[in-house]
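A.,

Following up on our hallway conversation. C-alpha cells first:
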C-alpha cells in the first residue's frame, strides 16, 4: 500500500510532551492498576474490577443505591447496574425493595467474605506503586490528588458548554 503524498510523516511541533502531560501520566498509572487488578480478580474470584468497586463501596457505605455508587466511583450507571446484577446473581449483595425507583444495596455475609478476600489484591497494587515514596510523600500526593479531584466538576461544565456550542453550530448549518 502506498502512502498518500500529503500524509504527515513527522511529529507535529505542537504535539503534547508525553513525559510531562499530567492527564496521560494519571491515565497510564490508573490503567496499569486496573489491568493488574482485573486479571487477578477474574482469575481468583471470577469477578472484575467493576464488581470489586461495588463491593468496596458497600463495605464502607451500606445501603447506598446504584446511582450513589456511580457518583462515588465516577462510573457510568449502566456499568454499575451490570455489576449489581452479577453480584446479586451470585448472592454477594441484596437489594432492599423500595416503593421508589432506587433500591438500597447491602452486602450479604458471603459478600462481606468476598470483599475481605479481594481487598488484599487492591491494597497490594497500592503498595507496589507507592513503594518508593516516604509516608510524607504519600500524604502529600494524596493531598494533591484530592485538590485535582476537587477541580474535576469543572470538566463536566466545560463539556456541557462545548456540547451546547456544537448543537448551535449544527443548527445554524442545517
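Then the amino acids I'd put at each of the 174 positions:
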Amino acid at each position: 500500500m502506498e502512502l498518500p503524498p500529503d500524509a504527515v510523516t513527522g511529529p507535529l511541533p505542537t504535539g503534547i510532551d508525553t513525559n510531562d502531560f499530567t492527564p496521560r501520566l494519571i491515565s497510564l498509572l490508573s490503567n496499569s492498576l486496573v489491568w493488574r487488578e482485573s486479571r487477578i480478580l477474574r482469575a481468583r474470584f471470577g469477578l472484575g474490577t467493576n464488581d470489586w468497586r461495588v463491593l468496596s463501596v458497600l463495605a464502607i457505605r451500606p445501603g447506598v443505591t446504584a446511582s450513589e455508587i456511580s457518583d462515588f466511583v465516577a462510573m457510568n450507571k449502566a456499568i454499575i447496574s451490570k455489576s449489581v446484577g452479577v453480584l446479586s446473581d451470585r448472592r454477594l449483595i441484596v437489594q432492599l425493595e423500595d416503593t421508589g425507583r432506587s433500591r438500597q444495596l447491602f452486602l450479604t455475609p458471603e459478600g462481606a467474605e468476598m470483599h475481605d478476600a479481594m481487598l488484599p489484591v487492591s491494597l497490594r497494587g497500592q503498595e507496589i506503586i507507592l513503594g518508593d515514596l516516604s509516608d510524607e510523600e504519600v500524604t502529600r500526593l494524596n493531598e494533591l490528588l484530592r485538590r485535582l479531584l476537587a477541580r474535576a466538576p469543572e470538566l463536566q461544565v466545560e463539556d456541557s458548554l462545548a456540547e451546547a456550542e456544537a448543537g448551535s453550530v449544527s443548527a445554524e448549518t442545517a
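The chain has a mean pLDDT of 91. Curious whether your intuition agrees with the design.

B.
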